[in-house]
Amino acid sequence: MPRPQALIAWSSGKDSAWALHEARRSGDYDIVGALTTVNETFGRVSMHGVREELLMAQIAATGLAPTIVRIPYPCTNAIYERAMAEAMQEAKARGITHVIFGDLFLEDIRAYREEKLKAIGVTAAFPLWQRPTDALAREMIAAGVEAHLATVDLRKLGSDFAGRRFDGGLLDALPSGIDPCGENGEFHSFVSAGPMLKGRIAVSVGETVVRDGFAYADLLPA
Description:
It is a single chain. It contains 6 helices and 10 strands; from the N terminus they run βαββαβαβαβαβαβββ. With about 220 residues, it is an alpha/beta fold. The protein folds into 2 domains: about 5-125, HUPs (Rossmann fold, 3-Layer(aba) Sandwich), CATH 3.40.50; about 135-220, putative n-type atp pyrophosphatase, domain 2, CATH 3.90.1490. The strands form 2 sheets. Strands 1, 2, 3, 4, 5 and 6 form a 6-stranded mixed β-sheet that branches. The chain has a 4-stranded antiparallel β-sheet with strand order 8-7-10-9, with helices on one face. A hairpin with a 4-residue loop joins strand 2 and strand 3. The longest helix has 17 residues, at about 75-95. The termini are far apart.
């Protein structure tokens, strides 16, 4: 019996990357593409601020086909939802029945995703749901995930965290109350190596730019 065809909601960060890894290990889905929103004004991944050039190299390393949803800056929620709905209608027409997310414990985010996809006739899947985040973060690192913090919320962390490697030293340095996986939006990351990628993507850390309350580390192709 054929497996349901799925997209992975791909942010370029560690949680979506690990969700892809776990979904592949389960064998429950035929994962055929990576779905990413890109800010067309800056040519970067939304929220993460990762250059599109790095994103495309990363998706190529997953062996998946890219599904890029381009949104403007600034972008209202209505514009975002319309762009995503159009992309999902097109995906459904291609045979996609599921979208896999790397969400961990935020109930409102999960409910929002389920509601929007259900209206289109697509099912949301959450292979990492309710996994303890400290153990999960250390499991990723032990398995060979290499990542840098691409974006930091300055209300929660100092700008010096932008560009740091996601490793045991970082986890130990996080202030009290900061989720080890950044699930509350404390930080976002870019994965350059791991079991979900065919090879390592060489990156270097450029300047840090502060905009709209966030510190963005400009990750560069090395």
